Amino acid sequence: MVSGSLECPVRGEMLSSVVPAKATGGNKDLELTSMDLAMKLHYIKGAYFFQPEAAQGLSIHDLKEPMFQCLELYYAASGRIRRSESGRPFIKCNDGGVRIVEAQCDKSVDEWLAMARNNDHMLAHDQVLGPDLGFSPLVFVQFTRFKCGGVSVGLSWAHVLGDAFSASNFLNLWGQIMAGKQVPLQPNSPAHNISQFPISISRKPFSLKKVDPVGDYWLTPNNSKMVTHSFRITAKQLHYYITTYCIHDPNKISDFEIILAMIWQSLSKAREDSGPNIVTICSNNSADKMAMLPSNGMTLSTVEADFCVSKVEIGELAKLIAEKRMDENGLIGELIKGDEVRSDFIVYGANLTFVNLEGMNVYGIEMKGLKPVCVNYMMNGVGEEGTVVVLPSNEKDGGNNGKMVTITLPQHLLLKLNNRLQIDWNIVI
Amino acid sequence: MPPASPDFSSSVKLKYVKLGYQYVVDHFLTLLLVPVMVGILIEVVRLGPQEIVNLWNSLHFDLIQILCSSFFIIFIATVYFMSKPRCIYLVDYACYKPPVTCRVPFATFMEHSRLILSNNPKSVEFQMRILERSGLGEETCLPPAIHYIPPKPTMEAARGEAEVVIFSAMDSLFKKTGLKPKDIDILIVNCSLFSPTPSLSAMVINKYKLRSNIKSFNLSGMGCSAGLISIDLARDLLQVHPNSNAVVVSTEIITPNYYQGNERAMLLPNCLFRMGGAAILLSNRRSERRRAKYRLVHVVRTHKGADDKAYRCVFEEEDKEGKVGISLSKDLMAIAGEALKSNITTIGPLVLPGSEQLLFLLTLIGRKVFNPKWKPYIPDFKLAFEHFCIHAGGRAVIDELQKNLQLSAEHVEASRMTLHRFGNTSSSSLWYEMSYLEAKGRMKKGDRIWQIAFGSGFKCNSAVWKCNRTIKKPTDGPWEDCIHRYPVHIPEVVKL
Fold it and tell me: If DSSP codes are grouped into helix, strand and coil, which group holds residue B330?
């Protein structure tokens, strides 16, 4: 517990647990796929900000109670990691529950959103699975009360359980139950696609990097201190970039791809070695918004540039990204089986990774009928090459196709990148 | 077990002999009266009607004699009816059902223990072993304050728990019986480990605006058997006050008593005690005769406190670090057995049929006079009772009693299932067990129920009830939504 100060405005943490309303029983076990195991050293953090009007009169009990019903339906989130006899991890749905953190913040919601957005990670509990692996919660939900009466809901979600879409579904389900809406029980979709593309070449996937064994302490080993920064790009700006720089096929380049290109080039200019030459893209096109079982259903692909990224036209880079993506799900599935299930890998930060959360329904959650004023997602336990998360933003100035971008990089690089982004693209950091 | 060897008693012939013997002794008076009545009838018939009329006329009846005889008869009748103890009826009772937000699965309990006792892996191991063998299920409940890591047992939280438990049970009781708060003449609240000022009974009076001339009592510190002590007190008060209603509230407040240290002897209650409470309406009003569920027949209280070991076997004290907890001694089961024997010795003559009492007496005389090596005769209480409600103090307690009283699995089913579903709710567990029997549709008019409770001190208290009317299912109560799942098989050791 840290006392309130300029650096650590979040304090007074109290932990408790919330469990499914009904006994899950039958000791249901969830198998972990290769994709799940590839992501096991990563953690997702989400922060949802609600204004005082939305949180007025809601006690901690009112916030916790819907979680019990939610966990009854979404019982996988209450499970714990166990290892089978072969050493392969799986999730035992034993009703261990979700950890709830109650905290206070000395600032108001508006003050927080106005300041430089480096600290959103404080609003979700720092989560690591292990060293007591079998007794570590997979999900933490932090309720932080701000000085003005507003509330932030901070989700910490172990990536081994599911991807960001699953995490967002889970919270949306909680929101629906809190609002008293009837939740239709969807049959659970079977475990997701390993790959729809046939494996033509057999090679090691570029998007994955094997790390030294971490044993039962599932966190990416890092040498540098990783920091996070978030900023918004308005829809108008994106439209401007696309039309200005991608003169050839403005309709073929998506918002995500132009952002990717811009950041890739700026980082290349900021780094001394003009790298990186390869980036990983993580996207999810088939996310089932109503699934009651979490899954890692994303598609991992890589883009390799055989030219100097910092010197080329941004339009060319965007075109490369759009056209030369190589799907690696099949390769990952091939790699992580047999003995390799016991090895440890990282995906985010093995290369500069871009996570596309554009299709995520983050503003689908409501508290007392009001949507959150801002939602942010970021990745924790990320490798040194860094990660960029792109999600939808809801600006108040009209158009709602703007994007929220959160970058996680080693501290020294992030400063340089921010400067470059301001110079190159007029992006307000 | 009869003094004969097991082979003999399993033979069919002896079984019929035993049945015949029981019938003869139990209905001895009837069997004696019948020949006498037959004799008189034959004599009357023999005399002939004319002789009887002559006999009648020869008795000179005088006005004074008739008046005196009538007064005498009326006087005797009045004295008899006045000195008969009032019938105490249990109109109905309500048990508290904790909300799902208080649920504590095994996995969560163990995880919290590991975090709270992180400096003492041995204590954690110990707790895990207890929990595995405890006989509790995955749906028992702890109050909200205990769900925090570490628990936050403030006085406010304790009062909060008391309010939720007691008021829910009372509201439920009012709804079931149609009782109006102003009609409560006697209020008894028992809660062993939480005793604030003003008392919990004052809290109830304040909430429901009970009458200013109510007779209220608050019993604290009397352990898990306090529920039956309250019933005994209510009974005595209802003898003194005619036409009255008494409400008894039995509960145990967990919040302030969760042990936060790591002394092993004191960790056991954390694993077993859970949230629960019951409110019971007793009455001596004749108008309740029709709708009352049970009639109180006997209450027998046995206190072994005079013995030092018994006195110290459940003891609340501070551990080496100054943390307060309830220490259970290793001879708990032995002392419980002794207390039970004492209690049985007193209750036996009140409830056992004549045949069992005679056998017991003969064996006793035989042991004293002829041969001390004869095995003591343990009377068969299954002949005296249809249902048994053994306080769900823990698996060991139920096992021990099942063995001592030679009860079948079905007899102790109510106790085991209550322990599984609700945990050890202390003084209210007997009422959850009664509720189980009712929910299963086993309660028929005329059934006799034996409630046994043990408590610190060391006490063993019993109450005997007789069912007043057959209770039909479905019943509302704490078992409403889960009775169809019971009975469940409870494994010896649950793998966590």
Answer: coil
Per-residue pLDDT tens for B183-209?
A: 999 999 999 999 999 999 999 999 999
Domain ranges in chain B are: 86-342+350-483
Choose which CATH entry (3.30.1300.10, 3.40.50.410, 3.40.47.10, 3.40.50.300) describes domain B86-342+350-483: 3.40.47.10
User: B488 — contact with chain A (CB < 8 Å)?
Assistant: no
List the beta bridge partners of residue A300: A282
**Model confidence band, residue A287 (pLDDT cutoffs 50, 70, 90):** low
In degrees and rounded to multiples of 5, residue A328 shows phi and psi of -120, 5
Mean pLDDT over residues B405-411, rounded?
Answer: 93
Task: Please report the pLDDT score of residue B58 as a whole number.
Answer: 73
* Residue appearing with tokens 């969760």: B258
Q: Which residues pair with B462 in a beta bridge?
A: B300, B452
Residue B348's contacts (CB-CB under 8 Å, 6 or more residues apart) are B356, B357, B360, B379
- Residue A44's pLDDT is 95
Question: Which residues in chain B have Cβ-Cβ distances shorter than 8 Å to A18?
Answer: 101
Residue B164 has pLDDT above 50, yes or no: yes
Token reading at A188: 């659970």
Looking at the complex, report in whole angstroms how far the Cα of residue B135 sits from the nearest Cα belonging to chain A. 16
Nearest residue of A to residue B139 by CA position? A23
* 3-state SS, one letter per residue, for B56-86: HHHCCCCHHHHHHHHHHHHHHHHHHHHHCCC
pTM summary value: 0.89
Contacts of A90 (CB under 8 A, 6+ apart): A29, A30, A31, A32, A81, A82, A83, A84
Instruction: Tell me the percentage of chain B whose pLDDT exceeds 90.
Output: 68
Task: Provide the shortest C-alpha distance from residue B268 to chain A (in Å).
Answer: 21
- Calculate the CA dihedral of residues A411, A413, A419, A425 and round it to 10 degrees: -120
* Cis status of the peptide bond prior to B181, with omega within 30 of 0: no
Would you state the torsion angle of the CA atoms of residues A220, A223, A228, A233, taken in this order, to the nearest 10 degrees? -90
Contact A68 B112 (CB under 8 A): no
Please answer yes or no on whether A19 and B149 come within 8 Å at the CB atom.
no
Reported as type and span, the H/E element at residue B344 is: helix B332-351
Phi-psi domain of B27 (left: phi exceeds 0; alpha: psi -120 through 50; beta: other): alpha
Query: Which one-letter amino acid corresponds to residue B238?
Result: L
Quick one: how far is CA A415 from the chain centroid?
22
Spacing of C-alpha A179 from chain mean position: 25
Helix axes B226-240, B429-439, angle to 10 degrees: 80
- Is residue B289 helix, strand or coil? helix
**pLDDT of A188 over the 70 cut:** no
Q: Please tell me which residue, B51 or B195, carries the higher pLDDT value.
A: B195
Q: What are the pLDDT digits (tens) for A61-78?
A: 999 999 999 999 999 999
Task: Give the closest residue to A136 by CA, choosing from A170, A191, A89.
Answer: A89
Cα distances (Å, whole numbers) of residue B43 to A323, B31, B53, B59? 122, 19, 15, 19
Query: Given an 8 Å threshold on Cβ–Cβ distance, is A95 in contact with B149?
Result: no
Q: Which of B101, B138, B149 sits opposite A95 (nearest CB)?
A: B138
Which H helix or E strand runs over A43?
strand A43-50
* CB contact (8 A) between residue A94 and residue B148: no
| pLDDT over threshold 70, residue A400 | no
Average pLDDT of the residues of chain A: 86
The helix (H) or strand (E) run that includes residue A18 is strand A10-18
Q: Measured between CB atoms, which of A17, A21, A135 is closest to B147?
A: A17
